[in-house]
Amino acid sequence: MRGWSSSEAPPRPIRCSTSRARRPVEMAVRVYHRDRPDERMPMIASDARLVVWPGVGAHSANMNYVHMRAGEENVPHTHAESEDTLFILSGRGSIADVANDAVLEFSAGQAIHVPAGLEHQVRGDRGSDVVSVGGPCPADLELLEAIGLWPRD
Description:
By secondary structure, this protein is mostly beta strands. Helices cover 4% and strands 37% of the residues. The chain has a single domain, classed as Jelly Rolls. The strands form three sheets. A six-stranded antiparallel beta sheet has the order 3-4-5-11-6-9, with no helix packed on it. A hairpin with an 8-residue loop joins β1 and β2 (25-27). The longest helix is centred in the last third of the chain and has 6 residues, at 141-146.
């Protein structure tokens, strides 16, 4: 793959047809910032930001940024058809595996994986805020619809 120099124009987006669209769509790399989220999900945490999700055109990827305050916990929930993966950037907390009556502790640098269909609840219950990135993949459209974020107008 050939790079391009600053004296050249950047590459143009590739136009293609997909099985999901009847018209050509533009494909291009996009960059998003956690401090400019498209939407928020208060059922996850008071500061849960949807950064990459279907609302911005992602079809199978999902990347949320969550800052859960110490003492906060999300609503127990299930993603029927999505695996939920979270990477803990900072802090310590626990996750309840509701279906198996288990609670697992986690801390910064660890990843959490929740299989599709398993009820779970993330808790900031170990004396510190918890900052994480990740989320259900593919995006949980059923959940997004239930909280009024999908489909987009």
